[in-house]
Amino acid sequence: MTTDIYQFSAQDSAGENIALSDYKDKVMLIVNTASDCGFTPQYKGLQELYNKHQEQGFEVLAFPCNQFKQQEKGSNEEIKQFCDLRFNIKFPLFGKIDVNGEDTHPLYDFLKTQAPGILGSKGIKWNFTKFLVNKEGKVIKRYAPTTKPSAIEADIEKLLK
Q: Which residue is catalytic, options 30, 37, 46, 124?
């Protein structure tokens, strides 16, 4: 039985395989993102959290997803260019994945099982659903797409202590 996220890996936006064990001993906020969504401006808030807490061991891991009204149509390269130009993001941007359905990335199967949504629902409802993971790789909490990154900061700070 898997109890932490360190056994998983995913391709970054350049196609390199990244082991999540590379983030051992760090607090992580894992987010499914999209470039053409009403919540896309949250990239700015995610970058602000990253700037403020990265030196204390905080990481934001962004996983673009095109499953919600095709709001992430671009290639991995186009998504990276958009994020760099529009939001100057410095946190890791992974390659596009599925977060629901038959081709769900194994990491997201795990996240959804560890932190179900309202009334125990497993499915990701929309872009910018966020999962907070502690330094031991345990999923602590799921946040709704409407939850602004700044509203999660107190929870992040508790885990960084």
A: 37
